[in-house]
Specification:
Layout lengths: L7 H14 L15 E5 L10 H16 L2 E5 L7 H10 L4 E5 L4 H10 L4 E5 L10 E6 L1 H15 L4 E6 L4 H17 L4 E6 L6 H13 L4 E5 L4 H11 L2 E6 L10 E7 L1 H13 L7 E5 L6 E3 L7 H8 L5 H15 L3 H12 L8 H4 L4
Parallel strand pairs: 1-2, 1-3, 3-4, 4-5, 5-11, 6-7, 6-8, 8-9, 9-10
Antiparallel strand pairs: 10-12
Helix pairs in contact: 2-9, 3-4, 5-6, 5-12, 7-8
Length: 365
């Protein structure tokens, strides 16, 4: 079923008309056996970011297929449009309204307070005084990024690696901090170049930063920059260095050049919260947190092809030849470090390694 992309211009017109004439009706949902309607407002970068927006969308597609829900989405052109977009779904009495990204937190809190009868979910922000009709989905990005940093240090031949962040903000500091600590755990003397692009949707900026890091000797670069990160991958291909993806399995984007991706399972958590609405178990007033211990975060396989990689061939995204490039890269570059990374992961789960959360403690100067 094709989804309806609701433009902000339409939203604004709708609200102005509704103020005088009352609200109209949503187009009838296809009948898949459930009356539940979900509206999701995506973060900066929108669909096609190959990251957490796409992951959240996959969770809703799965819910549509398995639970029979109907969903619509909005891709605001700017964060200033977030509140209007969220309010659109609330006014139309959607059963669940989801906001994606820390930049939307204030807007969602305002709208949720105005519509206490509507259920809300938010991805990527912990609310101190959470409302009874809100559930938040948060992740231990610092734990998953620790594994990425350790892998980068193990693979690097120059002793210099890089990190590209999207926006200089506490949430993105969690990725940076975990990566930094993981690399230093392997090699205390490793040099880690760190830059922020100040944008989640600027591949040209990501490429520029990554090329500069390559010039300074970095041979592995990790990004937590949404769509900006695709520019990091372009630079990795140009300079024949390595990159590490984030949030979703991005290994197929630059076959043979992305040695792994730090997984943040937004798709699973979005599906779970939708399922709670469908089966009547949704409970608001909760800040949920997902870590390595419960597979909320992790890293792609270092020695075997993942289903997302083989699916990329079936979907015509990459060729069999490119899939072979990924297979060879794993065999030669990352597979030798599989046991070490698995050992480190278990030590984090068991509490033998404590990863500092820079999102809470702040970035060391």
């Amino acid at each position: 079923m094709s989804k309806k992309l609701i433009s902000i211009a339409v939203v604004f017109s709708f609200i102005m008309v509704a103020a005088f004439a009352g609200f109209g009706q949503v187009a009838e949902a296809d009948d898949h056996g459930s009356d539940v309607r979900v509206g999701i407002v995506l973060s900066t970068g929108g669909l096609g970011d190959l990251s957490f927006n796409d992951s959240a969308y996959r969770g809703l597609v799965r819910a549509e297929d398995e639970l029979g829900i109907d969903f619509d989405y909005i891709e605001p052109a700017d964060t200033a449009e977030d509140e209007t977009a969220l309010r659109r779904f609330a006014e139309m009495n959607y059963d669940l309204v989801i906001g994606v990204g820390f930049q939307m937190a204030d807007s969602l809190e305002i709208v949720a307070a105005d519509y206490p009868h509507i259920r809300f979910a938010h991805v990527d922000h912990f609310f101190e005084d959470i409302l009874d009709n809100v559930v938040t989905l948060n992740f231990a990005e610092h734990e998953g990024s620790f594994l990425a940093g350790a892998l980068a240090a193990l693979v690097s031949e120059t002793g210099t690696i890089g990190y590209v962040g999207g926006v200089d903000f506490a949430l993105i500091h969690r990725f940076e901090g975990g990566y930094y600590q993981g690399a230093k755990y392997i090699d205390e003397d490793i040099e880690i170049l760190r830059r922020y692009a100040d944008d989640f949707g600027d591949p040209a900026r990501g490429r520029e930063i990554a090329l500069g890091m390559a010039d300074d000797g970095a041979d592995v670069i990790y990004h937590a920059a949404g769509g900006t990160g695709t520019g990091v991958f372009e630079a990795a291909e140009e300079e024949e260095i390595y990159a590490i993806g984030v949030d979703a399995n991005q290994n197929h984007v630059a076959p043979g050049r992305i040695i792994a991706s730090m997984l943040k399972r937004v798709d699973n958590t979005v599906f779970d919260v939708v399922e709670s609405v469908v089966d009547g178990t949704y409970e608001g007033g909760e800040n949920l947190f997902y870590s390595l211990a419960d597979d909320g975060v992790g890293i792609t396989s270092l020695d075997e092809l993942d289903v997302e990689e083989t699916d990329a061939v079936d979907q015509g995204i990459i060729t069999e030849e490119q899939l072979e490039m990924i297979r060879e890269m794993k065999e030669n570059i990352t597979a030798p470090h599989t046991e070490r990374i698995q050992e480190i992961e278990q030590m984090i789960i068991d509490g033998e390694i404590e990863v500092e959360n820079w999102g809470e403690t702040g970035r060391p100067e």
